[in-house]
Specification:
Two copies of one chain form a homodimer. With about 150 residues, the first copy, chain A, is mostly helical. Chain A has five helices and two strands; from the N terminus they run H-H-H-E-E-H-H. At the A-B interface, helix 1 and helix 5 of A face helix 1 and helix 5 of B. The structure holds a DNA duplex (30 and 30 nucleotides).
DNA sequence: TTTATTACCTATTGACATAGTAGGCAAAAG
DNA sequence: CTTTTGCCTACTATGTCAATAGGTAATAAA
C-alpha cells in the first residue's frame, strides 16, 4: 500500500512543476491550500523530500520550496522511494531480511522477485512530466481488464 | 506489502498441492511442521481460507484440510485477496473511499488505476500450479533489470 | 462409551506504523 | 526589528501485524 506520504509528496511535486516550474520558491502554505492538505503534516513530508534530494528549501521572506531539477528529470519511483523506503512487496526481499533460511527452497520467492521487478520498472519508467496536464498522442495506456 | 497471512496461505496451498493432491485430509500439525510456521497462527489463516472457499476442513481423527478444487483451478490473485482483502495500491481506490472529492481533477489517480490493473493481471494470471516444482520449458520469465 | 485426535472459537498482547497535532526556534528579507 | 517563512522536537490516537493462550466441538477408532 502506498501511504499518504508517498501520495502527498507526488502531489507536491506536481504542484510545483505545474504552477511554477523551478524558477521561484513557493511557500508551503500555498501548496497546502491548493492541495487541501494540512500544512503541519506537509512540513514533515517536505522535510524528507529536501533531505532526499527532491526539493530545495529556503527560509525567510520570499522563501519556500522549489524543484532542484527540471521536472522531466524526475521519475515517480524515486519520489515514492524517498517517502516509503524501498518499494518491496514482501519482507523476504527488503534489505536485512535477505537472510531467510528458506530462500533456496522457497517456491514463492521467484514470484515475489518477478513482481518486485515489475513494480520497479513501472514506477521508474514513469516520469513526473507524465503526470502533468494531458498532452495528446501520449504513449502509455492502462493495461487491461479487471 | 504482502503480509505473512498472504504468504503463509500460499505456502499452505502449495504444501497441499504438492504433498497430497486433493485426495485426503492433511492435519494442520503436519503442514505447520513442514513449513516451520506456528500451528496456532496457521489456525487463524486456514480458518479464513475455509470461509474464503479455498479449503475444506474436517474435524476428528483422520481430519485436517484439503483443497476443494484441482490445483490448476486456483490462481494466486484470489488466494491473496482472501487473506489480504482487495489488492489495492492506494486507499483512493479501495471500496468505500471511492468518494474522494478530488477524483475528477486528480493527476495521480490514472496512474494508480493503471498500477492496480497491472498488479491484478499479474496475480490473477499466475496459477497455483505455476509455483509448484519446476517443469522445464515453462513460459514466464522474470521481467528485467534492477 | 471412552479416548485420542483433530478442527474451530474467543480473547488478549506487544510492537510498530500511520496520520496526524502542537508549540516553539532559526533564518532571512524588507 | 518585525514579519514571513522553514525547521525541529515531541506527543498522540488509532489501527494493523503477528502472534499466543486456553478452551469447546466434532469425529473416528479402541
Amino acid at each position: 500500500m502506498i501511504t499518504t506520504k508517498g501520495r502527498y509528496a507526488l502531489r507536491v511535486m506536481i504542484d510545483l512543476a505545474e504552477n511554477h516550474g523551478n524558477e521561484s520558491y513557493v511557500p508551503l502554505k500555498d501548496i497546502a491550500e491548493r492541495q487541501e492538505i494540512s500544512k503541519k503534516y506537509l512540513e514533515i513530508i517536505v522535510k524528507d523530500m529536501v533531505s532526499g534530494g527532491l526539493l530545495i528549501g529556503a527560509s525567510g521572506k520570499g522563501g519556500g520550496y522549489k524543484l532542484c531539477r527540471k521536472p522531466e528529470e524526475y521519475n515517480v519511483g524515486e519520489i515514492l522511494e524517498v517517502m516509503e523506503g524501498k518499494l518491496s512487496s514482501v519482507s523476504c526481499l527488503s534489505g536485512d531480511f535477505n537472510d531467510c533460511p528458506r530462500k533456496n527452497s522457497c517456491h514463492t520467492l521467484p514470484m515475489w522477485t518477478e513482481y518486485d521487478n515489475m513494480v520497479h520498472d513501472f514506477f521508474y519508467g514513469k516520469k513526473l512530466t507524465d503526470l502533468l496536464s494531458k498532452k495528446k498522442g501520449s504513449a502509455r495506456k492502462a493495461s487491461s481488464s479487471k
